[in-house]
Amino acid sequence: MTAANRIAGERGLAAALFLHMHGLLALGAAAQRWWIGELGPATNTQGIMAAALATLSGYGYLRLVRAAEPDIIPSAHIHWIRRYRFAMMVLVGLSALAAVLLCWGQFLVFGPWSLAVVALLGLYLLPLQGAEGRSIGLREIPGLKALLVAAGWTFVTMGVTTDVPGDGAGFDGWIAAMQFCFFLALAIATDIGDLQYDRPGLKTIPQVLGIRGAKVLAVVLLLPGIWYYIVLMALSTVGDAGIPFKFFLPLLGLVVTVIGISMVQVHRPKWLFAILLDGMVLLIPLLGLLGEQV
User: Fold this and answer.
1) What pTM did the predictor assign?
2) pLDDT of 82-95, one tens digit each?
3) What is the DSSP string of the chain?
4) What is the pLDDT of residues 199-242, one digit of tens each?
């Protein structure tokens, strides 16, 4: 093997590890937790790291359950997980333990109500199997998949705070609603790409509404976030002629998200889903950070 081929192979392996082990999503979760800390419930380094580790453990666990089914879907990702099953089990276990330890002593943003979301997520991840070895559980309830994914992401990115919950619960509720809509829009777009794998009985939103209807719904769900940044821009320009780039650039990020969702099709290249759509989770906070420096 030549040096060039070896380097190319190492780069290919690194890219596979980053994507298949959900490194991009973990970075996105950490960035989102930092960004929400700028807009709403306060966080610290431990909370940001916990968001990333919770994402690694949650998605890794889901993939392990899917890879353990006797009739796994024809996905290169799932086959990769099956090949490196032991390494994934170690990663999932250590990430989950570390996430819990990092969150220890912090506060639930919405108090005991947050535990209901945690319970639903636990049932969503629980590896129940039917008589034929197929996974069953909340994930198999028609239309519920995307809602649970969005609820999970909302909790991971803003469910825990360093501040004692107080009078700002109403504002935090609006931030949570905006986050939920954003993640639900991305989940719907991802489900469009999964149409070739999902069973008809799963009744995901694209299966029920069709591709065009699902896209329209996803774009509508982004409107609360767009409206929110427009309001923040308007409030920031009172008495100041400058452009508030801290809010203007994330607004552009949501516009890019709308364009990305409009491009989604069942047979689009994998990079569209694994990089462009998943990358939207990371893009918004990065644009906010860039805007702070301008």
Assistant:
1) 0.83
2) 788 888 888 889 99
3) --HHHHHHHHHHHHHHHHHHTTHHHHHHHHHHHHHHHHHSS---HHHHHHHHHHHHHHHHHHHHHHHTSTT--S-HHHHHHHHTHHHHHHHHHHHHHHHHHHHTT-EETTTTHHHHHHHHHHHHH--EE-TTS-EESGGGSTTTHHHHHHHHHHHHHHSEESSPP-TTHHHHHHHHHHHHHHHHHHHHHHHHHGGGTS-GGG--HHHHHHHHHHHHHHHHHHHHHHHHHHHHHHHHTTT--S--HHHHHHHHHHHHHHHHHHH--TTS-HHIIIIIIHHHHHHHHHHHHHHHH-
4) 666 678 888 888 899 999 999 999 999 999 999 888 877 656 56
